[in-house]
Amino acid sequence: MNNLNDTLPGLMHRATENLEPASTDLLERTVQQGLRLRRRRTTLLTATGAGAVLATAGLVVGTTQVLGRPSDAAVAGTTPTPSASPHTPAAKPVTSKETLATLKALIQAPGLTLSKPETWGDKSALGAAYVVDDGKGASRVDVLLTGGGEEDRCAVPSAACTTLPDGSTLFSLADQPEYPGNRNKDGVVSNYVVRRLPDGRIISMTSYNAPAEKGSPHTRAKPLYSVAQLSALVQSKAWKLPPKSAVVKPSKGATPPSKTK
């Protein structure tokens, strides 16, 4: 038996002695194939990288659209400064001229002539008056609006008092001489109604049988407006009352009226 170390070289020589060496063309084709495989791998990697970039960009865009831009997020996350509450302007004080206009709107009617408008008072006591003539004699009609503080004439129930559904009370006097006894030389009488609201404010109206409370003879037997008519007038919602006041005032205006042109 031959030694393995002696026969192995010979065996290798015999196995390869008939092999032809690789041609130049084969080598070139092998190189080209390797280059093509390398380009394909590079292209694949590039495409994969680009896809990853696009996917990342899409994720960023989508997140921005949903959550907003970073600057928007910062603004949205900022605690909003509460806006100042709108200032409520103080109510405009009612004037005696407005009271006169309301009186005119309530009493004017076909067949009546209104003259000698008067106003007096301000703030917590507003007065207004007209001389009204229906062709049968002139009659002074006045109204006084106060913020309250006056004596409650219906504190003790009497025949002169009526309680209204809203809690207001009506105090009324009919055909009352303006002055007692011999002092009433001009024969002036009046119908007088006072409405006291639940909050203490007052609407009072008087109708005379003369063009003036005093200093003028009566021109008709009865005042133009009855107690029933005056009661309806003082219940009108058209009156704009002065603010509530705690100052006690006389039920009839103590301040002399001033003529309003």
TrEMBL record:
<feature type="compositionally biased region" description="Low complexity">
    <location>
        <begin position="73"/>
        <end position="91"/>
    </location>
</feature>
<keyword id="KW-1133">Transmembrane helix</keyword>
<feature type="transmembrane region" description="Helical">
    <location>
        <begin position="42"/>
        <end position="61"/>
    </location>
</feature>
<keyword id="KW-0472">Membrane</keyword>
<protein>
    <submittedName>
        <fullName>Uncharacterized protein</fullName>
    </submittedName>
</protein>
<keyword id="KW-0812">Transmembrane</keyword>
<feature type="region of interest" description="Disordered">
    <location>
        <begin position="72"/>
        <end position="94"/>
    </location>
</feature>
